[in-house]
């Protein structure tokens, strides 16, 4: 009797271990399938797409910059903008209650460039620290129907920036999403920032190509003025300090009205954060804003991030506890092959090829940082621009 009991216990233990192994393997297979669906079904639509020649577009455009304590950057940017090879544009510069020399710098350029329009925003108790309030005043002051946005710390990569972005407008397309990269340096933080920017761009360009646009970046995007008023401006998310770019696109973008601009002439370059703490705080704001996306978009983004995290966790677990090398290793290899093909093609298109070699390490580090930010934002959310 005792012998039978020992046999039964051993069998139950073996069945339990076998069941856990099967669960691990099935979960691993499912995560691999999800990852491949994202990379091959969505992101590949961008990375292997070619810029399409568009009809010449010469309608008047308002280039809008919202500046808060950006005097030094405006000195560099404004002369560059007036070297743009575009026949008809005005520059709307918003001084958002700056405490430095921003206002004086803008006023000094008014004498040199008659196409500058100054919008001087004073402190408003109801909208204190709210960039969207300042932008709203700037958009209302703009003379043109077509609006092109960038930041004071950005610079166009070519003299054809305006014409490249504007060329994507037509009767149907009312929003144009562009790429805003960061200036390169040799530090690891710089590479991490640019890698995160690259991965984000692969996602929002890929989703837009798939007919599910969900965000754009204020460093380089455009839309029609009538669309802004159709949305009642930023009224739906005015109380959220950030999100003047991605929340507006998330609200108003559709498959029919959104175009992507992937011509290298259309790119802009910004100055990245130089300390890890500054960059983390910036990412906290971005992540907190994403919680206000449409539910379907949050599901798609959340599923991709979860599948990335689980890929690394389950790969380790199945190699330790359910090792089937003829099945597991080829699947891991396929996932990395597809990942690197997408990463290389996208990095080449967006002029970030130096990041490909470090992609393996940067992916792990970024996943852990994002996890830390997600958890941290549950307890403390950023409130100011």
Write a structural description.
- The protein has 385 residues and is α/β, with parallel strands linked by helices.
- It has a domain at 61-278: Alpha-Beta Complex (Spore Coat Polysaccharide Biosynthesis Protein SpsA, Chain A), CATH 3.90.550.10.
- Helix content is 54%, strand content 12%.
- The protein is built from twelve helices and ten strands.
- The strands form two sheets. Strands 3-2-1-4-8-6-9 form a seven-stranded mixed beta sheet, with helices on both faces. The chain has a three-stranded mixed beta sheet with strand order 5-10-7.
- Strand 1 (61-67), helix 2 and strand 2 (89-96) form a beta-alpha-beta unit.
- Helix 6 (188-209) crosses helix 12 (359-379).
- The chain is elongated, with a radius of gyration of 24 Å.
- The mean pLDDT is 89.
Number of strands: 10
Proportion of residues in helical segments: 40-55%
The largest sheet, given as strand count, sense and whether it forms a barrel, is: 7 strands, mixed
Low-confidence stretches: none
CATH structural architecture of the domain at 61-278: Alpha-Beta Complex
The CATH first-level class of the domain at 61-278 comes to Alpha Beta
Order of helices and strands: HEHEHEHEEHEEHEHHEEHHHH
Give the C-alpha Rg.
Answer: 24 Å
CATH topology grouping of the domain at 61-278: Spore Coat Polysaccharide Biosynthesis Protein SpsA, Chain A
- Specify the overall morphology: elongated
Give the topology.
Layout: H1 2-47, E1 61-67, H2 71-81, E2 89-96, H3 102-110, E3 116-121, H4 131-141, E4 146-150, E5 154-156, H5 161-166, E6 175-177, E7 180-182, H6 188-209, E8 221-224, H7 225-230, H8 246-252, E9 258-260, E10 268-270, H9 276-290, H10 295-321, H11 325-349, H12 359-379
Parallel strand pairs: 1-2, 1-4, 2-3, 6-9, 7-10
Antiparallel strand pairs: 4-8, 5-10, 6-8
């Amino acid at each position: 009797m005792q012998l039978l009991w020992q046999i039964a216990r051993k069998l139950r233990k073996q069945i339990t271990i076998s069941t856990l192994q099967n669960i691990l393997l099935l979960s691993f297979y499912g995560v691999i399938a999800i990852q491949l669906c994202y990379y091959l079904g969505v992101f590949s639509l961008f990375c292997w797409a070619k810029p399409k020649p568009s009809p010449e577009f010469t309608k008047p455009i308002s280039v809008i910059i919202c500046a808060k304590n950006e005097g030094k950057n405006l000195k560099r940017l404004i002369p560059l903008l007036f070297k743009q090879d575009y026949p008809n544009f005005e520059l709307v510069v918003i001084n958002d209650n700056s405490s430095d020399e921003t206002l004086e710098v803008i006023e000094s350029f008014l004498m040199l460039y008659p196409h500058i329009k100054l919008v001087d925003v004073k402190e408003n108790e109801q909208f204190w620290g709210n960039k969207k309030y300042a932008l709203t005043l700037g958009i209302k002051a703009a003379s043109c129907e077509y609006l092109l946005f960038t930041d004071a710390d950005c610079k166009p990569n070519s003299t054809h920036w305006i014409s490249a972005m504007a060329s994507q407008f037509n009767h149907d397309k009312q929003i144009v999403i562009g790429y805003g990269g960061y200036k390169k340096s040799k530090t690891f933080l710089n590479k991490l920032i640019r890698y995160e920017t690259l991965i984000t761009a692969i996602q929002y360009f890929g989703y837009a190509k798939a007919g599910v646009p969900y965000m754009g970046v204020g460093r380089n995007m455009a839309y029609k003025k009538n669309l802004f008023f159709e949305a009642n401006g930023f009224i739906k998310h005015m109380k959220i300090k950030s999100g003047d770019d991605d929340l507006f696109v998330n609200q108003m973008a559709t498959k029919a009205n959104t175009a992507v601009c992937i011509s290298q002439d259309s790119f802009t370059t910004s100055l990245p954060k130089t300390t890890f703490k500054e960059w983390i705080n910036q990412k906290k704001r971005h992540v907190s804003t994403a919680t206000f996306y449409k539910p379907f978009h949050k599901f798609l983004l959340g599923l991709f991030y979860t599948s990335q995290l689980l890929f690394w966790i389950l790969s380790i677990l199945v190699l330790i506890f359910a090792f089937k090398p003829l099945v597991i290793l080829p699947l891991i290899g396929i996932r990395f092959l597809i990942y690197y093909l997408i990463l290389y093609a996208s990095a080449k298109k967006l002029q970030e090829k130096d990041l490909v070699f470090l992609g393996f390490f940067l992916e792990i580090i970024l996943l852990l940082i994002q996890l830390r930010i997600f958890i941290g934002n549950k307890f403390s959310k950023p409130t100011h621009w």
